[in-house]
Amino acid sequence: MRILIIGGTRFIGPHLVRHLVAQGHEVTLYHRGQTPAPLPPAVRHLYGERRELPARRAELARLAPEVAVDLFAMTAADARAAVAGLRGIAGRLTVISSIDVYRAFGRVIGVEPGPPDPVPLTEASPLRERRYPYRSAPPRPADDPDRWRDDYDKILVEQIVMSEPELPGTVLRLPMVYGPGDTQHRLFLYLKRMDDGRRVIVLDEQTARWRGARGYVENIAAAIALAATDPRAAGRIYHVAEPETPTEADWVRAIGQAAGWDGEVVTVPADRWRAPGSIPGDLAQHLSVESSRIRGELGYVEPVPVDEALRRAVAWERAHPPARYDPARFDYAAEDAALAAR
Fold first, then answer.
1. Strand, helix or coil at 125?
2. What is the DSSP letter of 298?
3. pTM of the predicted structure, to 2 decimals
4. 264 partner at 20 to 30 Å CA-CA among 57, 93, 249, 322?
């Protein structure tokens, strides 16, 4: 198939590109050319800004993509540009969304009042009632590199993509994604403690019990490739996440096993201590999700088992630690004091 990817040079993108090329697809990336990435030589490149897509319809028509994948539609304007550029040209548009569309996520970050929603979440679970979950007050200045966060909302992206009759859409709602290329360094908070020789990792009781859906980047890329190339995905919304959602304490233990760490996880009362860098928000609300739809309808199975995924993620994190981090997140004296008080 002829496949156009909007983005494709960061984190999930290179894994997706390599997966599609290995399957024999003809892949073209539309991107700004600002993020070098190791990609197969067969990949074609079109350079430009997203906002230019509607003005480049003639060029896109010559490319004649059978499907398109938008990896980086963050705002309504992003989605409108993609749809305007590809309407009537691409056969289908697959867009990457997030489980932050759910009201349950709003409960966690404190923008949606009310009791916890039932989990696991399904694709039909209630969405957030409040839009723009990361909008600051006052709004960020126009020259702030994070200005886009004020307009971020995947709910709006989904609505625009799924409402265009001339461009059938597919939505993939992703969990927390970890693995090689993760700029958020999701394993670092715990792995650094292990590699610093900490024999005990301290969690408050709420954090230890919390469950949040995750997915390994190569597995996520495989799911995107499957949904993008399978016509049965047209008009559908899918969760992509690991089938089991461990507690945070069990997640730390799994990282430890992959890292060769033989320490222990100890919990302390939440009203006495909470580690800097812990999961923020109301952890009475879990964010586990049901991912049986994509498995049943499209036959999705993770190509990389979870234990191997964690081994690869640990190896990458050790080789690519963040260049900068807040030392206050690793206040071992405070952790020792919390253990002593326990």
1. coil
2. H
3. 0.96
4. 322
Q: Which residues pair with 47 in a beta bridge?
A: 31
pLDDT in tens, 186-233: 999 999 999 999 999 999 999 999 999 999 999 999 999 999 999 999
**Number of structural domains in the chain:** 1
Measured between alpha carbons, how far is 193 from 200 in angstroms, rounded to an integer? Answer: 9
Would you say 101 and 25 are in contact if contact means Cβ atoms under 8 Å apart?
Answer: no
pLDDT confidence of residue 341: 85
Q: Which of 63, 28, 68 is nearest to 47 (CA)?
A: 28
Of the chain, the end-to-end C-alpha distance in Å amounts to 60
- Is the pLDDT at 278 greater than 90? The verdict is no
Task: Say how far residue 44 (Cα) sits from the centre of its chain.
Answer: 25
Check: CB of residue 43 under 8 Å from CB of residue 21: yes
**CATH code: domain of residue 266:** 3.40.50.720
Q: Do the Cβ atoms of 76 and 157 come closer than 8 Å? A: yes
Q: Which of 176, 162, 191 is nearest to 83 (CA)?
A: 162
Specify burial of residue 234 (Cβ count, 10 A radius: 0-12, 13-18, 19+). Answer: middle
Q: Are 181 and 113 in contact (CB under 8 A)?
A: no
Q: Give the three-state DSSP class for 339.
A: helix
The radius of gyration computed from the CA coordinates of the chain, to the nearest angstrom, equals 21
Give the DSSP H/E element, type plus range, for residue 201.
strand 200-204
Q: What DSSP character marks residue 146? A: T
Scored b (16 or more CB within 10 A) or e, 133-163 reads bbbeeeebeeeeeeeebbbbbbbbbbebbbe
In whole angstroms, what is the distance from residue 75 CA to residue 148 CA?
Answer: 8
Q: Report in angstroms the alpha-carbon separations of 228 from 51, 186, 225, 235.
A: 23, 27, 5, 12
- DSSP assignment, residue 38? -
- Of 146, 275, 155, whose CA–CA distance to 203 is shortest? 275
Query: Which domain range does residue 243 map to?
Result: 2-341
**To the nearest 10°, the Cα dihedral for 164, 167, 173, 179?**
-150
d(CA 14, CA 3): 14
Q: List the beta bridge partners of residue 189.
A: none
